[in-house]
Fold:
Amino acid sequence: MRMSEGVEWAAHCCLLLSWIGEDGPVPATRLAAGFDLPAPYLNKQLQALVRAGIATSTPGPRGGFRLARPLEQITMMDIVTAIEGPEPAFQCTEIRQRGMFAGSPESNFRAPCAISTAMRKGEMAWRRTLAKQTLADVNAAATGGLPDLPEQIRAWYART
Structure:
């Protein structure tokens, strides 16, 4: 399974917003500068966070983005869903009913597809894991060995 880089960008931006957004909204261009990312594409990811209720957006020259709720109330699954959408990663198309088995009795296919069942179990496991992991947990891991990281980030953004 592969997720778009937008998930990574959005998660990092949420942490940055928690660290530097205390003084007001942060423009997408400023967030993008910190990671040398294309601002228009990052803005699309940030807008997805707004639509999901993870961030808020303020228009205008002093506008930008802020977190809509505390880190403890945002899960990694919230971010994945905001960027990738809620659809399952695996889509069973029932190919077992085509080709050599086309025209077989319907009774042969009453049991769920074993491949689909295995894939859904795996997907549910990673979704549950991400749903249990809040951005507060990620923040603690990110700053665990670097307690002054948020201050360093604020200082960098204050210079730019």
Q: What stands out?
A: The radius of gyration is 21 Å. The CA atoms of residues 15 and 78 lie 14 Å apart.
